[in-house]
Design a protein that fits this description.
The complex is a heterodimer. Chain A has 16 helices and 12 strands. By secondary structure, chain A is α+β, with helices and mostly antiparallel strands. Chain A has 2 domains: 2-51 and 263-409, no CATH class; 74-219, no CATH class. In chain A, strands 1, 2, 3, 4, 5, 6, 7, 8, 9 and 10 form a 10-stranded mixed sheet that branches. Chain A is elongated and about 100 Å long. In chain B, strand 2 and strand 3 (113-121) form a beta hairpin. Chain B is built from 14 helices and 12 strands. Chain B is 54% helix and 19% strand. In chain B, helix 2 (15-55) runs antiparallel to helix 9, helix 2 runs antiparallel to helix 13 (372-398) and helix 9 (255-293) packs antiparallel against helix 11 (308-343). Chain B folds into 2 domains: 2-49 and 257-407, no CATH class; 64-243, no CATH class. Chain B starts with a helix and ends with a helix. By secondary structure, chain B is of the alpha+beta class. Classes of the chains: A alpha+beta, B alpha+beta. The interface between A and B is large, with 54 and 57 residues.
């Protein structure tokens, strides 16, 4: 074995220019795959995190009727005895955190400007754990229970000319259709870094929201985070049974994978990009295939001689594959190093998509960061070697087919 | 010609190698062509819808409206539209003129409500600029000055209403007083422009003007030109002629589409570059190998008096030919894929409504478009760049001394 390795090594170094050129394509391919992968995963991860934190939770429990008209945020289709539901959910194994929320629509009006925005009633202490709420506050402080206060998004504040300490007048319809109003003091300004949220969301204490909307002891949704997000569909099904123990399906627990398009979109993108990575590596491996073929043909005599001296076919194949593996190894190593460096850069600096995304409804971070992960680098590295070796299979088989006598005749 | 036929024969000597080499460049070009077709198709489709349903070719606002247009400031409306429109109608370049009032509304069925946009149009003049009249899918367009609304199909779906049902529009007048009006749905609009289908409640202009205390004012005047390519010159002319207003072209108003398409484009270019880079290394590698493989031949050719320059030429020609084959296959493959996207489109409608407004004016199916210029560019690019990357290995090949090259025989 050691002999074969040494043999392969020497062969690699025999024509260094050719080796470098064929390694170059694998190197670039590995580099590109690693940084593209880490950037796209980072981007999707950020979108999913935002979606989970701001909207779906890992599981969200709502009134069954609410689902039919979710876009309109129907306050009267709420969760009545929500404390009981909270208790049930809290006692379910696998649940990390449970918090109630009230979402309502407001046509916000200030100084002649009209904008539809979302008000969200929250329990600030629970949200602290749910979405690191105080870290998102860029000015002032988080709201407190029992106070008529609000936290507004950074772009919301800009659009309406609000500063910390200003008063935000909220006029809206209660669950029963009458008009109700409240003056909220702006306690702080938050930023999720996503225009769709920062532009049109304000948070207020949930008890005051219940009062404003005339739904005492009721909430519109229960937000659940799990210890393991992948178990969400299973736990959601379990919660459905527990919450509706009385029989009729009144409330519905839905896993984040089943809500909206985010999960679907993510899976689609994942497979599409995986195909692209494979294609890039596939084409890069052609170069190895060509090089190895040529190397094998060039050495017909040598191989014939080796065989005549008793080298077995499997050893001949082994040498060729080892040679490709050696080229693949070094090329992938450099590629992985470069790709890792770029993906590290992307994970720190990010790419700003700028103001163009402000009008977009979907919560997309305005600055996208890559996700630097040793796993991607390692897998990219292994893929580079794997594709190199696979590409050498044909030339290896060809080499094994040389007849000693024929190969030697040419001398 | 000799070099040409030599190079031509050479590429078929090891067809398998040639094949794998040009496959990579073919694939790179195919990706470029189909992505370009898709992205341009989406852009052009969006622009067409913006012009046909939202902006016309030229739009006139009252001074200061544009900056605040997302807030629908009714106090910044054009007080004397008739006078301006009369002036514009006289101009030769103009095909049609109309005026609209856009206003923010909450649409309600008495139980739930959704934010939407009120679009007040002139039933007689609107079709001279816009195509809304043709987009009525169910029910009928306004006849005369009767009350009623046309509703985007997406909104109708949300409220589960049909033609003949009633909805309430909650809004505020120019003087900030609340106003609620019940209207019968006259028709449903299907434009495949999300700004209309998901958001618009269309209402006759005079009814809206009464309800909003507009006193004959409008928020915009829209113009369709006979020759759309002269839009910028006409804008210049109008802005000199009419004072106290902002004159904008549809391009100014389509900025959101341009911004998103730019970021998408850079992403596709990244993938294209990755594939092409690898393809080019492949070509370079193939030529280098061919050069080594033919050491003896080169020696013979050189010994017989072939100039170094010619040897380089021969190999560069070989690279160009591989590029040519790759480009032909790539352009054919790309055109075929582009054809599929043009004919059938890619259907995203199952998730578009969830995603909401992303700037693009499409409610689901994205179509590609033919871009002969791009296909030609891709083709030339494939050939030229393949030739360029062959120069280095060709140079190495030509540096071999005839004696050295022959020594191995």
């Amino acid at each position: 074995m050691f002999f074969l390795l040494k043999f392969a090594f020497r062969n690699v170094l025999r024509n260094s220019r050719r080796t470098i050129l064929s390694g170059l394509s694998i190197m670039f391919a590995v580099m590109i795959v690693i940084y593209m992968w880490s950037f796209i995963m980072g981007m999707m991860g950020d979108v999913v995190d935002l979606f989970v934190q701001s909207t779906s939770g890992h599981i969200r429990v709502v009134n069954t009727e609410y689902l039919k008209r979710e876009k309109m945020l129907p306050l009267n289709k709420n969760i009545a005895n929500y404390q009981k539901v909270l208790d049930v959910v809290e006692k379910t194994p696998g649940v990390k955190l449970v918090t109630p929320r009230i979402k309502f629509g407001v046509l916000m009006e200030r100084e002649g400007k009209n904008k539809p925005v979302f008000g969200i009633g929250i329990d600030p202490q629970k949200e602290e754990q749910a979405m690191n709420f105080s870290k998102k506050i860029i000015e002032g402080r988080p709201i407190m229970m029992g106070k008529e206060e609000a936290n507004v998004g950074a772009l919301f504040a800009r659009d309406f000319g609000l500063k910390v300490g200003d008063t935000l007048t909220v006029v809206t319809q209660t669950a029963h259709g009458s008009i109700s109003a409240m003056n909220l003091k702006v306690a702080g300004i938050f930023s999720f870094g996503a225009a769709a949220i920062d532009r049109r969301t304000f948070y207020m204490p949930i008890d005051k929201a219940q009062y404003l909307l005339d739904i005492p002891n009721r909430v519109t949704e229960i937000f659940v985070l799990l210890k393991n997000e992948n178990k969400a569909p299973m736990i959601a099904a379990m919660l459905d049974k527990k919450i509706n123990a009385s029989g009729a399906l009144k409330y519905k627990a839905r896993a984040w994978q089943e809500q909206g398009f985010v999960f679907l979109w993510m899976m689609m993108a994942k497979y599409i990009y995986m195909t692209i990575y494979a294609i890039i590596l596939f084409f890069a491996s052609f170069t190895i295939l060509n090089t190895m073929f040529m190397a094998v043909m060039e050495r017909a005599k040598e191989i014939g001689m080796m065989k005549a001296m008793g080298m077995r076919n499997s050893q001949v194949k082994g040498v060729v594959l080892l040679e490709a593996a050696i080229i693949g190894f070094f090329a992938s190593m450099i590629g992985a190093f470069l790709g890792g460096a770029i993906s590290y850069g992307l994970s720190v600096a990010g790419i700003a998509f700028g103001g163009g995304m402000e009008g977009v409804d979907m919560a997309i971070p305005m600055v996208m960061y890559g996700k630097f992960s040793l796993f991607y680098i390692f897998v990219g590295f292994l893929m580079g070697i794997l594709f190199s070796v696979l590409a050498a299979i044909f030339p290896a088989l060809r080499a094994a087919r040389f007849e000693p006598a024929e190969a030697l005749r040419e001398i | 010609m000799l070099y040409f036929s030599l190079a031509f024969r050479n590429i078929f000597r090891n067809f398998r190698r040639t094949f794998f080499t040009f496959l990579a460049i073919a694939f790179g070009l195919a990706v470029l062509i189909v992505m370009d077709s898709m992205l341009q198709g989406i852009d052009q489709d969006s622009f067409k819808k913006i012009i046909n349903y939202e902006t016309g070719h030229i739009k006139i606002f009252y001074k200061g409206y544009e900056k605040e247009k997302d807030d629908f400031p009714l106090d910044k409306s054009i007080p004397n539209p008739e006078q301006i429109m009369r002036e514009i109608r006289k101009l030769d370049e103009v095909k049609g003129v109309t005026s609209r009032v856009n206003f923010r509304i909450m649409l309600s069925d008495g139980v739930d409500q959704l934010p939407a946009i009120g679009v007040a149009i002139s039933p007689q003049d609107d079709e001279k600029v816009f195509l809304l009249k043709d987009a009525v899918d169910k029910g009928s367009f306004f006849e005369g000055d009767e009350e009623g609304i046309l509703l985007g199909e997406g909104l109708a779906e949300d409220f589960e209403v049909e033609v003949g049902d009633y909805l309430t529009i909650l809004t505020r007048t120019r003087y900030e007083t609340y106003q609620a009006m019940d209207y019968r749905i006259k028709g449903l609009l299907k434009t495949e422009d999300p700004q209309i289908d998901w958001l618009a409640v269309v209402i006759p202009l005079n009814i809206a003007q009464d309800a909003l205390d507009m006193e004959g004012a409008v928020t915009e005047i829209d113009i369709r030109l006979k020759d759309p390519s002269k839009v910028e010159e006409f804008r210049q002319k109008l802005s000199e002629q009419i004072k106290g207003v902002e004159v904008l072209t549809w391009k100014d108003l389509a900025q959101d589409v341009l911004a998103i398409s730019k970021s998408k484009y850079s992403f596709s270019i990244m993938i294209f570059c990755a594939i092409v880079l690898i393809a080019l290394i492949g070509i370079s590698n193939t030529i280098l190998m061919a050069a080594f493989e033919r050491t003896r031949e080169i020696g013979v050719l050189a010994a017989m008096g072939m100039k170094r320059r010619k040897i380089v030429m021969m190999f560069v020609m070989e690279g160009a030919m591989i590029g040519f084959l790759g480009s032909v296959v790539g352009c054919l493959l790309g055109s075929f894929l582009a054809f599929l996207t043009i004919k059938y489109g890619i259907d995203y409608s199952f998730m578009m409504r969830d995603i909401g407004n992303i700037g693009y004016r499409s409610t689901g199916i994205f179509y590609g478009m033919w871009r002969p210029g791009m296909i030609l560019t891709a083709f030339i690019f494939g050939v030229v760049v393949s030739a360029l990357v062959s120069i280095y290995p060709a140079f190495i090949a030509s540096r071999m001394e005839p004696t050295d090259a022959l020594k191995k025989v």
